[in-house]
Amino acid sequence: MDKWWGNQGKRLKPHEGLDLCMYQTHQNQTLFLDEQTKLPSMYDGLILKIMDDFIGKSVILEHRLNKNGPSRFCTIYGHILPLSGLYEDKAVMEGEILGTLAPPRNLQRNLPPHLHLSVVWISSNISIQPLDWDSMGKLKGLKWIDPLSLI
Ligand SMILES: [Zn+2]
Fold this sequence. Notes:
Layout: E1 18-20, E2 22-24, E3 30-32, E4 38-40, E5 45-52, E6 57-63, E7 71-82, E8 91-92, E9 97-101, E10 115-123, H1 133-138, E11 142-145
Antiparallel strand pairs: 1-10, 2-3, 4-9, 5-6, 5-8, 6-7, 7-9, 7-10, 10-11
Bound molecules: zinc ion (ZN).
Zinc ion binds near residues 17, 19 and 116.
């Protein structure tokens, strides 16, 4: 529920992922991600949906771990500007660039550019097309995983 930016108060609702805005080089330099930062897919996958979020777009990818299983294993890359060649149903390979970080909008000056990363099992009963961030926060049938356990 905690904000890491601005007044560092509480969020309006629980955060379903991990926000990444800095990294450390091999020389122990800490640098900020910026709008030039290229964002690769963590795994081979299929783009299920590209949707608006409150900063840029979010891309939902499915990774076929268990074909015909009861749930789809998905990663979601939020607050990005997807490359123009991305489209729903496109297959992507691990390491393939999905886009760059979206610049925060005017009202979000105290919010540095950052990647929102979510990892989630989505029940196969749930249709992907109507999903948005609001409904994903409320629906049963989504099991969120801490991305730090995978990266
Ligand atoms: Zn976030």
